[in-house]
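Help needed: design a sequence for this.
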């Protein structure tokens, strides 16, 4: 077994070695024979007869871990005492904490932070509720809300299991854009209850990022919340994904010398992400989009179980192609996967037009692995951070919310999303553009600032920015400055 470049975690094996019988060479061979990669060795204890060593090994998945543990445990004189997974270690106790901005060192401080001083601030807000923006965390805080119904491509795993993703999104908001974000996982999947819960918590927040809520409920939930709240509500899996996808595709078609108007685009997975990506591509000029879900292509004239698909059938697939993914992909220039693991086969790519562009964006396991697709594609992208060309909404949501919070936008308009997509695409210069670099890295610190500036510009142009004094540029386009607020 060889370990693919998609190795995504490392384990620490704590081993007790009998000095007489155990040989480290045999342990190293056992690990490498199973495709593992030893990256560190530490001696944690040693006496006359035994040594305890911690060896850190890059692994692919749990099956691979089990294989290595078995192989190492079979080496004479070796006892596996403990196995710890670095990713799990990082999650112990969660990934976030609350940090006060002001220390309380004496009675005076206490009386300002808390009673009685705080009461005057409460009354000031009571008299003029908009003061909450300047006198509370609302100004810089958003809620990351999920019901756990479509967590990555893992499906309906429930609110507790969704927390690590939502905590992760909150970490990214803070680290990349200085936005404070709270993960909120709701124990209901009822549309009306979710709407009511989000409305009830909204006073504390300057914006709502909806996350991993399955379609079609997500459309109604977002529409109603946008209508009924005066703060921006943004379903990341729809619009964050669509923005980044368009950014990547603008650069990919430039690279292969095609235009969006002439491309045949197949979108697989007509859920939250698939529908929003398709709408954004249509707005950007794509004419020939064919949507495919589990039952095949979505075609005009059919009756579908929800309004979103009915709309989709009427606005896509101009040639009324029907059939499976393998059938409708013939001659396609672009494949966009926002469905689930392993949906796309090499034979499907071989049916595509010259210079195929494949964006296999399902997380954590894409529609096809880059290793498999590589020999047949011209441009390959996934949603993951461990391959080149990461098309992931993390390139969008921090900058979008930085922008809307800074100009106090009441909503996120189509113009703002389009501006964000163009800003992300423009980070990659013509000289830099290549098959392996169609989209900037998540760590390119100019991304957030460029998205923020584009979003603010478009918010004023769309008339949704409520801050009368236009915010200054925090860092300036192209600068690599970490934004902290
Ligand atoms: N890279 C990114 O930034 C990004 C962003 C959002 C979503 N995604 C990924 O896209 C996928 C969908 O997310 P979503 O929020 O739209 O979920 P969703 O539940 O709203 O929609 C998923 C859709 O895919 C369809 N589907 C599932 N398996 C399929 C298959 N084998 N063939 C055809 N269709 C299939 C489902 O029927 C559903 O309509 C997930 O894997 C998610 O991780 C990636
Ligand atoms: O969470 C991610 O990495 C991207 C996206 O929001 C997803 O649901 O897959
Ligand atoms: Mg998501």
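Sure. Designed sequence:
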């Amino acid at each position: 077994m060889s370990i693919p470049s998609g190795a995504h975690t490392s384990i620490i094996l704590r081993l007790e070695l009998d000095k007489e019988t155990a040989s480290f060479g045999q342990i190293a061979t056992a690990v490498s024979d199973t495709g593992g990669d030893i990256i560190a060795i530490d001696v944690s204890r040693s006496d006359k007869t035994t040594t305890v060593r911690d060896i850190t090994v890059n692994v692919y998945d749990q099956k691979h871990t089990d294989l290595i543990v078995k192989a190492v445990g079979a080496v004479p004189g070796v006892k596996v005492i403990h196995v710890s997974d670095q990713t799990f270690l990082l999650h112990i106790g969660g990934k976030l904490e609350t940090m006060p901005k002001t220390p309380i060192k004496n009675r005076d401080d206490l009386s300002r932070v808390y009673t009685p001083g705080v009461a005057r601030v409460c009354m000031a807000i009571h008299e003029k509720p908009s003061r909450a923006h300047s006198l509370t965390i609302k100004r810089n805080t958003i809620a990351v809300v999920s019901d756990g119904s479509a967590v990555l491509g893992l499906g309906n795993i429930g609110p507790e299991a969704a927390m690590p993703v939502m905590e992760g999104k909150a970490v990214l908001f803070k680290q990349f854009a200085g936005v404070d974000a709270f993960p909120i996982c709701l124990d209901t999947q009822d549309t009306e209850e979710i709407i009511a819960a989000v409305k009830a918590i909204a006073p504390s927040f300057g914006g709502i990022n909806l996350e991993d809520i399955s379609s079609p409920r997500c459309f109604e939930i977002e529409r109603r919340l946008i209508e009924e709240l005066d703060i921006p509500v943004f379903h990341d899996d729809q619009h964050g994904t669509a923005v980044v996808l368009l950014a990547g595709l603008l650069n990919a078609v430039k690279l292969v010398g095609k235009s969006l108007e002439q491309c045949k685009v197949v979108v697989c997975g007509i859920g939250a992400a698939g529908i929003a990506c398709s709408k954004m591509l249509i707005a950007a000029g794509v004419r020939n989009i064919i949507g495919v879900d589990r039952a095949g292509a979505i075609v005009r004239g059919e009756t579908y179980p929800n309004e979103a698909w009915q709309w989709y059938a009427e606005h896509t697939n101009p040639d009324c192609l029907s059939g499976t993914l393998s059938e409708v992909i013939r001659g396609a220039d672009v494949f966009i996967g926002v469905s689930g693991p392993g949906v796309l086969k090499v034979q499907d790519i071989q049916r595509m037009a010259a210079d195929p562009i494949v964006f296999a964006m399902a997380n954590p396991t894409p529609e096809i692995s880059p290793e498999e697709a590589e020999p047949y594609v011209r441009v390959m992208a996934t949603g993951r951070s461990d391959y080149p060309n990461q098309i992931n909404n993390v390139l969008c949501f921090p900058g979008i919310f930085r922008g809307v919070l800074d100009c106090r936008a009441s909503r996120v308009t189509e113009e703002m999303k389009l501006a964000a997509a163009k800003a992300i695409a423009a980070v990659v210069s013509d000289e830099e553009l290549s098959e392996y670099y169609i989209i900037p890295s998540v760590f390119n610190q100019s991304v957030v600032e460029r998205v923020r500036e584009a979003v603010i510009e478009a918010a004023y142009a769309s008339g949704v920015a409520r801050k009368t004094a236009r915010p200054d540029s925090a860092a300036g386009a192209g600068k690599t400055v970490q934004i902290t607020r």
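The longest strand covers residues 9-18.
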